[in-house]
Amino acid sequence: xxxxxxxxxxxxxxxxxxxxxxxxxxxxxxxxxxxxxxxxxxxxxxxxxxxxxxxxxxxxxxxxxxxxxxxxxxxxxxxxxxxxxxxxxxxxxxxxxxxxxxxxxxxxxxxxxxxxxxxxxxxxxxxxxxxxxxxxxxxxxxxxxxxxxxx
Length: 151
Description:
The protein has helices spanning 2-14, 21-31, 37-49, 87-97, 102-116, 120-130, 136-150, and strands at 18-20, 53-56, 59-62. It has 2 domains: 2-81, Orthogonal Bundle (Arc Repressor Mutant, subunit A), CATH 1.10.10; 87-150, no CATH class. By secondary structure, the chain is mainly alpha-helical.
C-alpha cells in the first residue's frame, strides 16, 4: 500500500516511531521533494483518518512498525494518496492486504449487501472482519452511521 510506504519513509529515515508534525512535513516536502508542505500536511490528515498515524502530545506516532515496511528504491508516491478514501475503499484495501483477491472480495461484498439488506460499507466491514482484516475503526464508524440513520 503506497500510503503506508509514504508514511513510513520519514520514520525509517530517522529511526523513530514518533516525529513532530513539522519534522514529518519537512521529510516529505523538503528532504524528499515529494509534496509541497500543504500536501504533506494533507497526507498527515489522510494517514490519521486511515489509522496509520495518531497524534499524541503534538507528535505523530506510527500505528504500525515502519521498520517492517519495504520501500522500493525508486518509490515516489502518487498525489492520489492525498484524497480521502471511502469506508468501502478502505475496507477493500484491508481485505486485499489480508490476502483476498480484489474481484472475489467485491463480488462477495455485493452478495452480502444484497442478502443482508445492509449498506455497502456495512457489508464490506463484515466481510473484512470475517477474513481477519484490521478494520475495527471502520467498524466503529459504520456502526455509528447506522445508529444515526435509525435516529
